[in-house]
Design a protein that fits this description.
A hairpin with a 6-residue loop joins β7 and β8 (about 95-100). α3 (about 125-135) runs parallel beside α5. The protein is about 40% helix and about 25% strand. The relative contact order is 0.15. It has a single domain (about 5-300), classed as 3-Layer(aba) Sandwich (UDP-N-acetylmuramoyl-L-alanine:D-glutamate ligase). It has eleven helices and 14 strands. It has about 300 residues and is of the alpha/beta class. It is globular. The protein has a nine-stranded mixed sheet with strand order 6-5-1-9-10-11-12-13-14, sandwiched between helices. Strands 2, 3, 4, 7 and 8 form a five-stranded mixed sheet that branches. It has helices spanning about 30-35, 55-65, 125-135, 150-155, 155-165, 175-180, 185-195, 235-250, 255-270, 280-285, 285-300, and strands at about 5, 10-15, 20, 25, 45-50, 65-75, 80-85, 95-100, 120, 145, 170-175, 200-205, 210-215, 215-220. Bound molecules: adenosine monophosphate. Adenosine monophosphate (AMP) binds next to β2 and α8.
Length: about 300
Amino acid sequence: MSLLVVGTVAFDEIETALGKTGKILGGAATYVGLAASHLVSDIRMSAVVGGDFPQEYLDIFAERQLDISGIQVVPEEKSFFWSGRYHDNMNQRDTLTTDLNVLAGFNPVLPPGYRDSKYLMLGNLTPAIQRQVIEQMDRKPGLICMDTMNFWMDTAWDDLLSVVALVDVLAVNEEEARQLSGEYSLVRAARKIQSMGPEYVIVKRGEHGALLFYKDHKFYAPAMPLEAVTDPTGAGDSFAGGFMGYLAKVDDISFESMKNGLIYGAVMASFSVEKFGTKRLLEISSHDIQERLAEFVKLVAFSI
Ligand code: AMP
């Protein structure tokens, strides 16, 4: 089934204890789209970039069969730029720069062929723009999943709440869940977020896995314990790409299916962090994915 991915397509600059990248391909929609492209074929990308965005980066999307006709290029503007530095433990990072650039004036216009998409992933992006995308759909998609971050809670709170009210799944990390709900307990935080609109809440907990809340049901997907994490950037977006890519592939949004989606999300996130930027997402094969899925099954299988 079709999956529409909206979010930032950007330049990132990342610093970890292992080194510093120059400006590389990044952005929330980039990670979502590339991760999902391993699972489902009809993916439509909506984003904006400046005239400085290299054609070779756009070619990367096209090579993975993503529809990029909805990526708007504004020649006189610069692309969104984000830079961050990770602490030695890799679990914490400081944002050094968020230059909205072309994103500040982005007015998404979905190509007509995008408007019937069955699945919609609203990647991290200005909340007002996320809402504009929902409003342009021909009809409500079968499932809308949304990501956001503290930056938007600090700068666009009211807009953010108005979009949260329109989505089915909110996927955020634990600090974001706490900030959004004002609750420390993740169970209470999820319940409060459910009362704001989304029936399903996913709380991403980095190396501690992810939780899915739906009514009174809970499900936990672990993260794969890895020998080394090179770059956690985009882990959450790769997770969302695995989750929505799987649901779009099986076209089933039951709670059981969402549980599998969470495992696919964990699989794609585990690959993404193994190398800097999008490198690992671009080299893995379906065989690698199947192998890692089997490792996940072994990781949590036991009989009492
Ligand atoms: P994550 O590590 O999952 O939080 O995602 C990191 C990606 O999000 C990077 O590739 C950034 O380009 C992008 N990003 C960072 N800040 C923002 C923001 N305020 N809005 C949208 N995307 C962002």
